[in-house]
Write a structure and sequence with these properties.
Thiol Ester Dehydrase, Chain A, 3 helices
Length: about 150
């Protein structure tokens, strides 16, 4: 299905928001593509993000799936809005072993308030791709809020 974004400048808005997410920088994530209702987030293998068996940690896999899903939804939201996850379910399909991981998200149903998105995470080694996780998520469209910075807890 083809979607028409409500904001003609959605790509710049999505990329700016992605750049403000400090987790993306900390993990080494890259926003490789964004289109109306789609998003791809790429993460090179990093042994410091693995669990005890050497697989990419499920929390990291979930993070990139959620990020891609959120920005796929955000691409269809109005210019004066913001996005956050409401809920998601993730199925871990195979050990996350690869040179690079990509979360590929696609909106299934956009709504005025809630948007349903699917995100697939694949592990890539050379030309071989293995699906390691599938996520179904619901994102909510919120009024835009000023950017906040993290503060230390007292």
């Amino acid at each position: 299905m083809t979607f028409i974004p409500k904001d003609p400048h959605f790509e710049a808005r999505v990329r700016a928001s992605f750049a403000r997410q400090t987790i993306n920088k900390a993990l080494g994530c890259e926003l490789t593509s964004v289109g109306p209702g789609t998003c791809v987030v790429r993460l090179p293998h990093n042994p410091t993000l693995c669990q005890q068996h050497g697989y990419m940690h499920a929390g990291i896999t979930t993070t990139i799936a959620d990020t891609a899903a959120g920005y796929a939804a955000f691409s269809l939201m109005p210019a004066d809005s913001d996005v956050v996850s409401v809920e998601f379910k993730i199925n871990l399909m195979a050990p996350a072993v690869g040179e690079v991981f990509e979360a590929r998200a696609k909106v299934d149903r956009p709504g005025r308030s809630l948007t349903v998105v699917r995100s697939e995470v694949v592990a890539i080694t050379g030309e071989k791709e293995t699906t390691v996780a599938l996520m179904q998520a619901t994102m909510i469209c919120l009024p835009s809020a000023p950017a906040k910075t993290a503060t230390k807890a007292l």
